[in-house]
Amino acid sequence: MKLLRSIFVTLLLALSVAAHAIEPSGEVVTLNGKRYYVHSVEQGQTLYSIARTYNVTVDDILAANEGLTISTLRYDQTIYVPVVELSKREQKRLKREAKSASNEALHTVQPGETVYSLSRRFGLSEEQFMAINNLSSSADLKAGMSVRTKVEEAETDAAVAEQRPNAQHPQSEAATPLHPADTARYDAALYDAIRRQEAQALVDTTMVDRETYAYLFGDEESLRDSVQPLDIEFLRLGDNNVLKAALVMPFHANSKVNPNAVDFYRGMLLAMEELKKGGMSIELSVFDTENSVPRIKELLAYEDGLLDANIIFGPVYEDEVRHILPLAEDNHIPLITPFADMSDMSSPVLFQMQPAAEFRSDKLTQIFPEAEEVVYIYAATNDNSFVSDMRVLTDSLPSRSLNFVYNRQPLLYRRNSDGTNGELISDKSLLRSQSKKLFVIAADKDTDVDRILATLSSARIYNVERGLSVGDYVVAGNRRWMRMASLDRQLFFKNNVAFIVAHHAKRHEYVIRQFDAAYIKAYRMLPTIFAYRGYEAAMIFCRKMFTGLDASIFEETFCPLTTTYRFKFENGMYSNSEWILEQYNRNFTIVVK
């Protein structure tokens, strides 16, 4: 924890933090027979933080104040908060009881928790959770209630379904509960109703969970495809307000410091210092997940800086995101994932900075649009996923496959359908062909990649020096080559290698030099790609929280340094669509598209 202590010290030096606990109002009025606290909103307070203070929900406050929304809450505004019986002292007692009950598969329901969030947290379907706790509807769940979190072996799925025979559905007053293990209970009318409903609407009403939908329609992909941006209104801070941001990162893993997480955090600090100079006030809380799901659950139970956040950056790994997502969804908090490709998740509060895989093909087709032939070159071991991607993208072009063998000298053979060697192919003759070629090097070892690139370059030089014809070609670069330390980078230029990358930061560019200088001055070391991404994350999304994180994001292009970000709503979430093409040219220049 020494690292985190030093992190918080650095943070306090870098930012002006306006952190204070919310004091409950002592003024109570009675309106229409109901008692309300009269609360004066102070700087930095949100509906969620106010609701947690008074042990009510955000919806309770909205219902008590006509015309009030998340975005219209303002400093010095007076609002009414319904009076409930639980005091702050009793809330703390409930937290202590929840902690002691955790070893007994019990959980004390906290204010703001729902059937949906709890079932996801404990790995149950909503039907299972409600059945084992004898809940006839989600409205029966109350703060302070002790609930079970595990299904005993004797409680089969069919038995769980039988415990809730009167589940209500918008189009069926006595709909049979659904669960994949209880197929005999599917009612035809209900099934037709499901077909007529939008998938997200079904999930939102909690009448059909994702597991059931996946069972009915084959897989979760159809569910993700049908999800649309919901009418979620994120907080718009405007001027003279404080943004409460949370950074959730695995700063430690197996008791070792994770330097990438630290670099990301440092980049965020530099961005927030700039934003502070521009008049934006930001309170940043930093949490170490320790690459541990139990640690994530602990943070979600007790850390106010996370629970009160207006925006969350992180975590890194998809299984960690899965546990924080319910908090973000329930309270309309944008959740920014900096690195992972969330291929198995969807949510209208999820923003993915890593370019999504489905957008990569658009950029790959720009590598060599005039290509007339694709030549695949295999070695003893190969990167099959890279080859599969390229074959999908080039299926309309004529192609042939070769095997590369190095036996004191490089040799190329025609590749038979079973992968064996056919006749010997001259590398010089291969390049004399006037057809414009796209070479795809399948090899996955640095020595093989280096030798194949050297062979192509040598064959070209041989032909040119003798005045022989040379056909134009480009090599499709594999991103994994960037991690092969022994590769001769000059061969990238000599072979017109083109890479599709997620991030671009060349240190000769002016804005990168400026950032590097500031980073070196602050931390006495060169920044990494993780520091650049941390800076970019804060500059894009912290700014948007002040100006409004809404549909306008689809119309904007962001480029805080040299990497461009464009967001689209695809597969049920907001994804960066901008891959970058880095083209190495024989005149030793690099063109970025």
Q: What distinguishing features does this structure have?
A:
22 helices; nine-stranded mixed β-sheet; 593 residues; 23 strands; elongated; disordered N terminus; seven-stranded mixed β-sheet; Rossmann fold; alpha/beta
Model description:
The protein is of the alpha/beta class. The protein has 22 helices and 23 strands. The strands form 5 sheets. The protein has a 9-stranded mixed beta sheet with strand order 16-15-14-13-17-18-19-22-23. A 7-stranded mixed beta sheet has the order 9-6-10-11-12-21-20, sandwiched between helices. Helix 12 runs parallel beside helix 22 (529-547) and helix 13 (293-302) packs parallel to helix 15. The protein is elongated and about 100 Å long. It starts with a helix and ends with a strand. Residues 1-20, 96-104 and 153-227 have low confidence and may be disordered.
